[in-house]
Amino acid sequence: MKNSKYELIVYWSDEDDSFIAEVPELSGCMADGNSYSDVVKNVEIVIQEWIETAKELGREIPQPKGKLMYA
Questions:
Q1: What pLDDT is recorded for position 34?
Q2: Is 19 exposed, middle or buried, given 0-12, 13-18 or 19+ CB atoms closer than 10 A?
Q3: Radius of gyration of the chain (CA)
Q4: What domains, with CATH codes, occur in the chain?
Q5: Which of 7, 10, 59, 67 has the most CB within a 10 Å radius?
């Protein structure tokens, strides 16, 4: 990940039988993986793709706040 400082929420999903990572500051940005390390790698890729897509569409990219703001 290119120095991303977005907060991640990582949890196990019995329904999906995998780890899930959500990025609360980037709407709809999430990934899954078979292990904790896999899900972190996968969500790093998705974060970059989310940012690239937002740039292409001219949408605002939120600055990372670095702490949980949504609990």
A1: 98
A2: buried
A3: 12
A4: 9-56 (3.30.160.250)
A5: 7
The SS3 assignment for 8 reads: coil
Question: Burial, 43: exposed, middle or buried (Cβ in 10 Å; 0-12, 13-18, 19+)?
Answer: buried
Question: Tens of pLDDT along the chain (71 residues)?
Answer: 455 789 999 999 999 999 999 999 999 999 999 999 999 999 999 999 999 999 999 999 999 986 665 55
Q: Is 31 exposed, middle or buried (0-12, 13-18, 19+ CB in 10 A)?
A: buried
DSSP state of 10: E
| Tokens describing residue 40 | 């972190």
Q: Is the dihedral of CA 18, 19, 23, 24 positive or negative?
A: positive
CA 42 from centroid of its chain's CA atoms = 9
Give the dihedral of Cα atoms 29, 32, 35, 38; nearest 10 deg.
-60
